[in-house]
Amino acid sequence: xxxxxxxxxxxxxxxxxxxxxxxxxxxxxxxxxxxxxxxxxxxxxxxxxxxxxxxxxxxxxxxxxxxxxxxxxxxxxxxxxxxxxxxxxxxxxxxxxxxxxxxxxxxxxx
Amino acid sequence: xxxxxxxxxxxxxxxxxxxxxxxxxxxxxxxxxxxxxxxxxxxxxxxxxxxxxxxxxxxxxxxxxxxxxxxxxxxxxxxxxxxxxxxxxxxxxxxxxxxxxxxxxxxxxxxxxx
Lengths: 110, 114
What we know:
By secondary structure, chain A is mostly beta strands. Chain A has strands spanning 4-7, 10-14, 19-25, 32-38, 45-51, 56-59, 62-67, 72-77, 86-94, 97-100, 104-109.
């Protein structure tokens, strides 16, 4: 079945810096790769996603890139702000389910 | 608000007991997924239902079961509860196979077993 690895597990940056979170997946049939942001005690919220027929997608300060050959996808956050502090999960479609990475705790210091 | 509703928000119960968690998907969504999130852990897939039928099973314990009803709401039943079952339980919904793949989560049920 699908397996998703996510790195790093913790990321600390200064406000205004960029943050990059990387994921790899195992199932070459996966074709949808969402990213979720989860604040403490709250629901995971879909922030951006990318489909397998696209290499890059951008939404304001957030961008995702996908390398299907290498089975890598990444989340890029530019000009980080304290409110970006949260746990971020990547995911990939497995058979009839979304398989999540283990999460990255992002801390943005003012 | 994601449009996915879970009840109750909090549940405290004793070991050995049985509880039922409820999830109402977004209007128009036929798929419901259940996930377990233990303290500071990731999202572990439990089970997926589509239009009333079980479609995929993850590492769901035999003490746990789920179903999806004709009105598409779903229930997750947890029995013979153990301390280690304490966790946040999320459901998510999506249109289903062949439709837009976006999945949206409910606010979760926090289960505490004492």
